[in-house]
Each structure stands twice: as structure tokens, then as C-alpha cells.
Amino acid sequence: MTTQQRAIRGTKLILIVSALWLGVLGAGQAVAGGLLLYEVGTADVGLASAGWGARAQDASAILTNPAGMTRLEGSQSLLGAQALYGDYGFSIGPGTSSGLGTGDGGNPIGWFPGGSAFFSYSASPDLKFGFGLAGNFGLSEKYDENWVGRYYVQEATIMGLSLLPSIAYKATDKLSLGASVNAMYGIFKNQVAINIPDAQRPGNFVPIRRSETDAQLNVEDETWGWGVSLGLLYEFNAGTRLGLTWNSQVNLDFSGPAEFSNLGQLETTLQNAGLLNSNIDVGIKLPQQFMGSVFHQVNPRWAVLGSVGWQQWSKFGQVEFGIDNAGSPTSLTKNLEFKDTWHFAAGAQYSLSDAWLLNFGVAYDSKFQEGSTVSPLLPLNDVWRFGAGVQNQVSKTFSWGVSAEYSYAGTLDVDKQSTAPVSAGGRGDLVGSYPDAGIFFLAVNFAWKF
């Protein structure tokens, strides 16, 4: 079998396995992984993303900085797989309306598998082509049906699965340039309970079991969005390099009918308000971002890595669904305001031997939700990441690695005030917190050279 035939066979295998992993990624229910992840099963998990655009040590450079492909010998492929567990239990506060019940929602996140795949082809020492599949944008959560915040959210999914055809060219001995097209397949679903006023409930209605006779609103859609990524890699010398990347905004224009169920007498009220047969447009804008990264080989054993980035979350445009006052409804949506964020990461690599490499790092992302409280639809804000991992070079053509990371979100407070009492069809006052919220990641990766 020739080198070219082996490369073609390897490419087919990677695409098949990747498609299976991304299918799993889109099928999760009681899961969540944040909105914009640095974790896709690669060695970057162990570095907590430090050196994101400057590391360029494997084919995952297609995602992190396509210009980094010029540093890869020959043609290479990488398969990443990971599992995460989110600990996001809700603690009900004393300010929560008593009419909402006592359900805490359970853990809306739980376990979730995911992965990625990348292939870099060497057309010449200076010209590389690549293709990647990754799902690094998303949030999915599912609460118990009787939880006290069900009139704000019961189930929500926003996900983006990216196909990344890429190219890189070494312009000079020091400067490399790269670009990728981001073809993103977006998945959106939102389900929320609707509180029916007591006067419109069935005659045998029992207030303590209000959730059993709630109505529901469901909106879902799938669409494609498009963007580009541009990368620059400058190598000052063999052990020091700077990476600069820009990822464009990706627009995911979801649109779907407002699907109601179990409305009872509320159907007439919604019909008179012009809300019953409405179509809901949800414009999700995956924010543009800039990232600057460095890699410096201090000595044969130690290397240090760092990153600084900016993300334009003020353009995100997420909306919260629900009805503030079912007795006199005026709207099904409410805009949530966000602000731009900053990302900082630092890490190191330690070479135990020619075959074994240790990775570790820490990172911080600033708040994107205004004020000190969050919406239960998006129980996220600023976050700390702590990662560690190991890579093993088994032979000249094969290596593997395993990494772990803990993403700590702290205590996230919720303070939602209703415009009407629960008995009159209001959503109720929801007060409480997600204490010591966090996500654990465990990742493995396998890399081949052809």
C-alpha cells in the first residue's frame, strides 16, 4: 500500500468515526457544556487552553490556528473523545413564591459524551490542506418537570457542529498564514411551562400539584451558519512562536412556530392576544473573537504557554421564553443582555523523556451576563479552568494522550421577579442559586502521521 493510499484510507476512517461522535454530540438531553468550549477531546484540555493558537503540535491546529499546520510533518490525523459531567444542582431561596412548589429541578446537566476529528494533508513542505469536525459551541439542559423555575425554562438546547475545511501556507521561514471556513450546523430547542390562572384550571385542580396541569410552549429548529477563521503564526526561533487568530461571527437564524399544548381555556386568551399561531425568530450570533497566544521552550525539559483573548458576547442575542402574566399575555419572548468577555490562560509542558510529555494549565473567562445574577436558561458566567494531562509518543507514527480538567463556575445567583402572582398566571418569583457549580472533563486523543 502506497503512502497516498494509506492517507486516503486513514482519512475515510477519521471521517466515519468523527461523524459517529458528532452524532452523539447532537443527541444529548440532560447535559451542558457551556457556550463556547475550548474542550473538544484534544491535548488542550490538559493545558486549560493555554497556548491555544501557538502550540501547533498536532492536527487540532485546524481548529485553534490553521496556520499551525505548516509545523506538522507530512500528513497527520487526530481523533479526540471526551466525557463531561456537570454538577449544577439548584438551591431554592426563601424569596421563591410558595405557589411554585418545592421541586429543585434535579441536576439539569449530568453526563455527556463528545469528540472531534482532524486531518492535515501535506501538499508540499510549505502548503497544507486540512479538514476538521468539532462541536465546541453549545449548551443543553433539562430540568425535572415540577421544578420551581419551570415557567422560565424546562429544557433548552443550543448547539453548533462545525465542519472546517482549511489551508495553510508558509510565506517565509518565520511567517505562516492560515484560513478555515466554518460551516456550522445549528440545533435549537426550548421548552417552558406556562402557568394557567387558577380560575381557568380544572375544577379538581390542587395547587400543590400545579405542575401536573401546566400548559407548555415548545420552539425548535435547525439551520446552517457560516463563518471564517484567519490565523498567523510567527516563529522567532525554533523554540519561540506567536500565534494570532480571528474567528468571525456566525449567524444562526432559527425560526419556528410556537407549539402549545394543554392550554385549556388559556387558548382563547392567547388567540385574542395574537400569540397562539405566532412564529418565533431567534437570531443567535456566535460571537467573533480574537486570540493571541505564545509558546516558548525554556530548556529541553520545560516549555511555557499563554493566551489572551476577547469575545464579543454583546452580539449574542439570546432570548428567554415564557409568559410573564398568562391572565393578560403580551409577549412570548424577552431579550437577555450580555457583555463582551476576556480570556486569560497560562500553562506549561514538562518533558519526562523523549516519549512522555506532561501538560498543565489554568485559565479564566470573565462574566458575560450583566450584574450579579444569571438566568436559569443560561446558568453560566465567569469561569476558572484547571487542567492536567499526559501525552505519549509511542512511535514515529503514533501517539496518544489523556487529559482532565475542572471548570469551576462558583455560586451563580438567580433572582427573577414576576409581574403577576402565581395564582393569577404569573411565572412567580424565582430566587436561589447554583452553589459551587462546575464541570469535569475527561479526554483522550489519538494521533497518526502518514
Fold and architecture overview:
With 450 residues, the protein is mostly beta strands. It has a single domain, classed as Porin (Beta Barrel). The chain contains three helices and 20 strands. It has helices spanning 3-25, 61-64, 266-272; strands at 76-87, 91-92, 110-124, 127-142, 155-170, 175-194, 215-237, 240-247, 250-257, 259-261, 279-286, 289-297, 302-311, 319-321, 333-335, 341-351, 356-365, 383-393, 398-416, 430-449. It is elongated and about 80 Å long. Residues 6-34 have low confidence and may be disordered.
Low-confidence stretches: 6-34
Strand order of the biggest β-sheet:
1-3-4-5-6-7-8-12-13-16-17-18-19-20
**How many β-strand stretches?**
20
The percentage helix is: under 10%
The radius of gyration computed from the alpha-carbon positions, rounded to a whole number of angstroms, is 24 Å
Number of helix segments?
Answer: 3
State mean pLDDT (0 to 100 scale): 89
Q: Beta-sheet strand percentage?
A: over 45%
User: Termini, distance in Å?
Assistant: 12 Å
Tell me which CATH architecture applies here.
Answer: Beta Barrel
CATH topology: Porin
What is the CATH class name?
Answer: Mainly Beta
For CATH, the homologous superfamily is named as Outer membrane protein transport protein (OMPP1/FadL/TodX)
